[in-house]
Amino acid sequence: MAANSQFSMAVHVLTMLARAGDDNVKSDYIAASVNTNPVVIRRILSQLNAAGLVSSQTGAFGGTRLAKPPAEISLCSIYKAVSCGEVFALHAKSPNQDCPVGRGIESVLCNLQKEIEKSVGEKLGQYSLATVIDMVSVAHA
Amino acid sequence: MAANSQFSMAVHVLTMLARAGDDNVKSDYIAASVNTNPVVIRRILSQLNAAGLVSSQTGAFGGTRLAKPPAEISLCSIYKAVSCGEVFALHAKSPNQDCPVGRGIESVLCNLQKEIEKSVGEKLGQYSLATVIDMVSVAHA
DNA sequence: TGTAACTGTATCAAATATAGTTACAAATAT
DNA sequence: ATATTTGTAACTATATTTGATACAGTTACA
Asked: Looking at chain B, which residue has its C-alpha nearest residue A136?
């Protein structure tokens, strides 16, 4: 397994939290739905917490809940919260600087990369967690 | 090395070819600029050839050249030619189908994924290889 | 205050993808 | 014929992601 599915898992996790309202949800419970290990969930929750999207409580009867209403959580903020890779990677090894193309291509690709990321962010920003919840409801209705 | 840099390398390769005009360019020559192994370049050229963007000649004095003018090669067609991964991956393991969220989330994410890919394609389609060549020229001017 | 139930995180193993390398058959200009 | 080049298979090395175990720290509650 190498393809980064953290965004997908994060959306799943947040959808679970949204449906629980103000109740604390345990990582074990979420893990059972995502079909993975609780630690994997806690790692994602840790990133979502750092981004201010959720808040967690340790200790007995602890767990995690949303830090704001689903309508205020855009998919863009989720995407940024979990450190996914870029849409495309730049050269692994720096190109030959003795070649005019090798010398100039990196910055061009870097700028392009930023623009694409921005475009993806804007597209994702058109949707919120609330949108996803509606879609999930419709999907299995 | 795991991040997929094939798109970046493909743009680099095609830029080299564009600058050579109608001359055949050898994979060794391109590899020297990209700073990698010729076989890596030939693998990319193989994909670009399958997409009809370049044409190659085997044998002595063989090599590769563009199959059409740089202005007619959009970055979208390059992106599609090299099999990059998606912007984000779906769940590695299928979610728990006994959970309403697990049952509905996959198709929602799949549709979202398609929409994002489409958006990326449109953005990349705004640029052509000719644009990149201009940018590279300006960058090291 | 003790106990049970959580999170947070370190650490390791397993699986997988990418890139790099070597090798060689097939093709082709001279 | 020969030298040169592509096309591709096979293998290695490396990085990343996920999954799993373990345990310290925190907290509610009897």
From this structure: B104
